[in-house]
Amino acid sequence: MGISKEDILPIIMSALREDVGSGDITNASVFDKDTSITACIIAKEPCVLAGIDIARWVFDVLDEKINFRPLAKDGDVVKKGKKVASLRGSVKNILTGERTALNFLGALCGIATLTKSFVDEIKGTKAGIFDTRKTMPGMRALAKHAVKVAGGSNHRTGLWDGILIKDNHIYCSTPHHKGAGHRLQVLGSSESVIAGLVRKSKAKGYKNVEIEVENLKEFKEALEAGADIILLDNMKIEDARKAVSLKNKRKGPRPLLEYSGGVRLGNVRRIAKTGVDRISIGFLTHSAPSIDLSLEICP
Q1: Which of these, 97, 101, 135, 129, lies nearest to 115 by C-alpha position?
Q2: Which of 89, 106, 132, 158 is the most exposed place for a label (fewest CB within 10 A)?
Q3: How far apart are CA 285 and CA 107, in angstroms?
Q4: What CA dihedral angle connects 230, 233, 239 and 245, to 10 degrees?
């Protein structure tokens, strides 16, 4: 997923308003006059770099005269102590933008670093690592960019660009629904709710219709209905392997199989080796630990 300065500028402006407010009163109290300095941004731990352009745009917003020079690019594996950027310009404006730029960099490097650990873990399998919509509000474009530069893939961007029929859609589409145990039976019909919702979406001309299932019975319903993508939600790994086998035996178009729920580094390779096509992981974007970077004044 690509990002542009125009798209990200409102996020940067909001972050600067939050941090700077009516002005940097520490700078005002310490510096009688502005001077020019040279500074560098240093990775304090190994990481995958993501967000270097966002850091540059932070300083551009504050002062277009600041010379920001990237020393590494997004997606690079960076060692501890590596300088990832150098800056030359106003001491006041560099110090004002320091924390906002580092906050963006730290969060995005954290997402990228975690993503690469999963991508590396499943090398040699056919599966891909995908993100989800579990992102900090307003930060989705940046989070998904970080996943992408680390070798992961982006799931749908939002509700507007992909159909994913989830458990609550299924429950609430069941006539006289009885809640979470009543997913399959449609009263007075031979067709299951799962099959009916897939066919309904496809009849309206939507492509890449995805539906969530929790067990093999539901999986078979979705498979026969012609779902384009079937999400195996918190399914036992052995059942996921059986689902792959059932899909491979199917004549005609075969759906993509996506596994989600309870995925960790300790089990992701076992999941990938079942033969699923995609593994989606929410905590790539909602729980990745931030990477420690610092801005230091250079002689």
Answers
A1: 129
A2: 158
A3: 9
A4: 20
Query: Over the Cα atoms of the chain, what is R_g?
Result: 24
User: Considering 83, 88, 99, 254, which one is annotated as catalytic?
Assistant: 99
Regarding the domain delimited by 5-116+288-297, which CATH topology (the fold level of the hierarchy) does it fall under?
Aldehyde Oxidoreductase; domain 3 (3.90.1170)
The one catalytic residue among 166, 178, 217, 236: 166
Q: Based on the residue annotation, tell me whether 116 is a catalytic residue of this protein.
A: no
Q: Catalytic one among 134, 199, 202, 241? A: 134
Residues 6+ apart with CB under 8 A from 42: 81, 82, 83, 84, 293, 294, 295, 296
Considering only the top CATH level, what class is 120-286? alpha beta
| Catalytic (active site) residue 99 | yes
- Domain ranges in the chain are 5-116+288-297, 120-286
Is 19 annotated in the active site? no
d(CA 82, CA 72): 9
Note the pLDDT tens digit of each residue in 211-259. Answer: 999 999 999 999 999 999 999 999 999 999 999 999 999 988 899 999 9
Q: Are 108 and 143 in contact (CB under 8 A)?
A: yes
Q: Is 166 designated active site?
A: yes
Q: For residue 42, what is the enclosing H or E element?
A: strand 36-43
Q: Do residues 221 and 194 make contact, with C-beta atoms less than 8 angstroms apart?
A: yes
DSSP 240: H
Residue-wise pLDDT tens digits, 87-97: 999 999 999 99
* C-alpha to C-alpha distance for 139 and 117, rounded to whole angstroms: 22
254 is catalytic: no
pLDDT tens digits, 62-91? 999 999 999 999 999 999 999 999 999 999
Residues recorded for the chain: 299
CA–CA separation, 276 vs 63, rounded Å? 49
Residue tagged active-site, from 98, 233, 258, 277: 233
Distance CA 32, CA 92 (A): 10
